[in-house]
Amino acid sequence: MVTTRAPEDAYTAGPFVPERGGLAALREAAAGCRGCPLHRDATQTVFGAGAADARVMLVGEQPGDQEDRQGRPFVGPAGKLLDRALAEAGIDPGDAYVTNAVKHFKFTQAEPRKRRIHKTPNLREMTACAPWLAAELALVEPELIVVLGATAGKALLGSSFRVGQVRGTVLEEEIHGRRERLVPTVHPSSVLRADDREGAYQGLVQDLRTAARVLS
Ligand code: URA
């Protein structure tokens, strides 16, 4: 039997992204995205959440286990820590638009019913998903993007992005045809994994204070 399969380079969400209709139309269309293979194993698309007029957009990597089940970004342990850090830095989490570079959960699972272990999305999957993030940026037009970790940084700023080199600084870059201001910081999951959790948490809060100053 001959099976036809698109070359992996052809993975893209582009044809699924509607040209009109605002965030609601985007979210609805994203639910049916088949732009890369990640939709096959994930429970659902986890699209961005928050107001279309949010002043700040937070961009993470991809939904985790909880997000995949609940269909909303940053509702699991990393999200709870992020909300606490935002509030401590002076940014109301309810005022932010929160999304991810990749909209489906990528994981490995030793056996059915065993724990699903997060797997970092690769460049092809990030590139395939980029049209959704571009569409969110074009609609929300945030004053500031908070880049949460390396995958979000690579998705927005290119593969040479190194979070350790630029965290806590204010960057200005052309992204998808718009001049954007960005403050990169670590991913909240890395705080949960850190040996010095309190130190890592304080570092995150300090970076978010830089973001809060840009917004003030
Ligand atoms: N980690 C992310 O990057 N995004 C989520 O939505 C949850 C965990």
Write the layout of secondary structure elements.
Blueprint lengths: L21 H9 L25 E5 L4 H6 L6 H13 L6 E5 L6 E2 L8 E2 L4 H18 L3 E5 L1 H8 L5 H4 L4 E5 L2 E8 L2 H6 L3 H19 L1
Parallel strand pairs: 1-2, 1-5, 5-7
Antiparallel strand pairs: 3-4, 6-7
The chain binds uracil (URA).
Using DSSP, what is the number of strands? 7
Give the CA-based shape: globular
What distance separates the N and C termini? 62 Å
Give the rounded overall mean pLDDT: 95
Structural class: alpha/beta
Main beta-sheet strand count, sense and barrel state: 5 strands, mixed
The portion of residues assigned to helices is 25-40%
Radius of gyration: 17 Å
List of distinct ligands in this structure: uracil
Number of helices: 8
Q: pLDDT under 50 segments (min length 5)?
A: none
Beta-strand level of the residues, as a percent range?
5-15%
- Strand and helix order: HEHHEEEHEHHEEHH
Strands of the largest sheet, in order across it?
2-1-5-7-6
